[in-house]
Amino acid sequence: MISTFDLRQLERCVELAKTALEKGDDPFGSVLVAADGKVLFEDHNHVAGGDHTQHPEFSIARWAAKNMSPDERSIATVYTSGEHCPMCAAAHGWVGLGRIVYASSSEQLIQWMSDLGLPPSRVRNLPIQEVIRDAVVDGPVPELAEQVRTLHQQLHERRK
Ligand SMILES: [Zn+2]
To answer: How far is the CA of 61 from the centre of ligand 1 (A)?
Structure first.
C-alpha cells in the first residue's frame, strides 16, 4: 500500500534522479526516512566519475550502518526512483534496513533498455525479493515510473 506520504518521498527521489542526470550521472535518487517520518539522508547516483558502485541505495545502507541502531534501521524506509540493483539490495539486507518503496521496477528498467535498443547490464536486474528473503517492498507507481522512463530516455539521447 502506497500512502500520500510515500508518494511525496518518491517524488523527491525522482527530483534527485533528475539532479543526477543534470550532473552527468545516471538518473537514480533515493531517500532514507525514519519510522517517525523524518528524512534522515538522501543521495543520487554518482557513477560519472567511473565508479559504478556509487549508487544512492548503497550510500544509504552505509550511512544507516554508521548512524543508526539496528532497531532504528529495521523500522526505517528507503524510497527510491528505481528498484535496488542486487548490490544495493544486498547492502540493504546486510545492514538490516526495513521497507523499500520504489517508483519504477527493475523489470521496467529492463524493458526500457530493450525498447531503446540497449544491451542488458552485466549485473542481472533481479527483484529485491530474490536477494532479501523477508523484503517488504512496494511499487511501482505508474505516473512516477513514466517520469523515470523519460529520464532514462534523456540519458540515452545524450549518449548517442
Ligand atoms: Zn544499486
So the answer is: 11
Residue 71 CA, ligand 1 centroid: distance in Å: 24
Question: For residue 63, how far is its CA from the centre of ligand 1 (angstroms)?
Answer: 15
Give the burial class of 96: count Cβ atoms within 10 A of its Cβ; 0-12 exposed, 13-18 middle, 19 or more buried: middle
- Residue-wise pLDDT for 84-114, tens only, equals 999 999 999 999 999 999 999 999 999 999 9
For residue 58, how far is the Cα from the chain centroid?
9
Cell numbers 550502518 label which residue?
Answer: 65
Residue 39's alpha-carbon distances to 1, 9, 54, in angstroms, are: 20, 9, 21
